[in-house]
Structures are given as structure tokens and as C-alpha cells.
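Hi Y.,

Following your request, here is the sequence exactly as I used it, all 324 residues.
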Amino acid sequence: MDKVESLNSFEQIKLLADSRRMAILRRLMASPATLTQLGRELGKHPAWIQHHIKALEAGGLVEIAEVRVTTGITEKFYRARAGAFLLHELILPQSDKPAVIFSGSHDLAIESLSTRLSPHLRLLTLPVGSLDGLVNLRQGLCHIAGAHLLDESGDYNTSFVHHLFPDRPVKMVTLAYRTQGLLLGPGNPKGIQALTDLTRKNVTFINRNPGSGTRLWIDREIHRLGLAPSLIRGYGEFVHTHSESALAVQTGRVDAALGIQAAAHQHGLDFIPLFEERYDLVIPAEQVKLVHPLLDALQTATFRKQLSTLTGYNTAHSGEQIPL
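Below is the corresponding structure, written out as C-alpha cells. Let me know if you'd prefer a different format.
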């Protein structure tokens, strides 16, 4: 069975920016071929083909599959080193300070840290949800991920990290504990008190994106309560951040959402707390040096004071490393 290889090298991707080399590689993914065969199929002289084959060989994309000697003539058959290639590469800004890509669960403390750390590094955020953030980290699409994934044992993140990084050393550090609950309009006009009230016909709801820690929590909780998602108006619609959830409630688009207390406070909403969660940062060992300014900041009194302005954050364990 042919395999798929991921290309993380900019030099490899640059090779394939040449449409002629891409055509040769795609042909060799189908089956091995000689320079003469490739020249005949592509309408080019074998010497022209050989020039590009050498570049693809040097880049680790093509290899010799077989050497045949027929009536004194040696023929080399070339093949692609994989049945398909997955291309991905971070394109970062040119700057005198390092750029760090953060992916994972949306968090207001991360946004605040980004501003504070701006003299030392440029923190760029990609909020895709906890699970997809860890997947992005595994695939090399970011340097650090943020997650709050609760597993069946009642622990946060550890089992998910073990599953996605069985062969790579990673570090997991607590950013903070956060309070999550129901975001409601000022004065709670619909009188919502619990998740069960979301099934009322006069109540509209907006969900979080699949794969986010918030979405996984509510999916599990309504199952535990025996509630059918189809009875909650708007359960299938979603936004990607806590701020978007709060804005949907603030503007009257919906009556309720699930999100962090800090987002409710920022948008002047009522809030009913439902649970406290641990939010962790996950960093591959090879990226620890790059993100060191961020990890150092978690240990400071300034950071804790800064987070105290975000309602619903508990910094008692900020900066603690979680054993893996």
C-alpha cells in the first residue's frame, strides 16, 4: 500500500512550485518510469527531464526504483518516494522578534498575554477549538496549543495529549482555571436557570464549534441529562470563540450560549456558573525555547494581577507543569 508523506520543508515545497517538476512527480506517483519514457510522455528531451529529476532526488521526493541492463544499455527507473504528498508550511512575518503561532481553544488571557509580550515576540492566534489545536500542533501548523478537554476519568487534556503525541516529548503547563456557564441577556429576560431550560420552545441557543472543549462538555452533559439536541433551538449552529458567543447574546440574536464568565462580564451579560475547568498550554519539546518568554510570564505577579481583571479566572496554579 502506498503511503502519504507530509512535507514540512520550505525547500521541498519550493521545488514543487515549478509546474514542470510537479508534472514529473505526479507521473512518478502513478508508476516508475525512465528518463526516455518521461520525455516521450511529456514531450521533452531526456536531458531536460534529467535536470529536474536530479533536483527532485536532491529534495528527497524521487528515488531510483530499479536499474535494468538490456543489450548493454543501462536504464534507470525512477519513482516518487510516496503515493501522495501533503504540503503544509507556516509562512511567518519577517521581523527582528520571533513569531509564535498559537492554535487551539479561544482564550481571553492569551489575547491579553499577546499584548504584554509584544516587545519580545509576536504571538499570532488561530482559534480552532481544543482538539483541532492539538491536531494542528501534531502536524506542525503551530508552535503551541491551548486546550481544556475533559476526559471520561475527569482529568483535563492528559489522555488526549498521550493519544496524539505517543512518540514525541511535549510539555504541558497550566495557564489558569476558568469558570464556564450560561451567558444570558441582561436581567435574564427568559428566566433561564439551567441547561434543561434550553429545551423550552421560547428559548434560542447558539453552540460552539465541534472539537472545542466547550462543545465536548455540553455534548456530554446534555447526554447525561437525557436531553435531545433536536429539542434545543440552535444547537446545530455554532461560533468559534467565547467573544462571538457573548456577542450573539448581547445583540439579541439568541437567548443563551455557553461560555466563560469573563466574556459575559465584558459584554454586560448575566451569567450562571456551571463548572470550573483547567486550561493548559501544550508545547513540543523543540519549541520550548521559542516560547520561553510566554512561559516565564505565567510565573509573574504581573500576569496574575492582569488576569484578576478577567472575571472568572483563577491563577492559583498558573505556570504549574502537568506530569505526562
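Residues 192 and 308 are 28 Å apart (CA to CA).

Thanks again,
Q.
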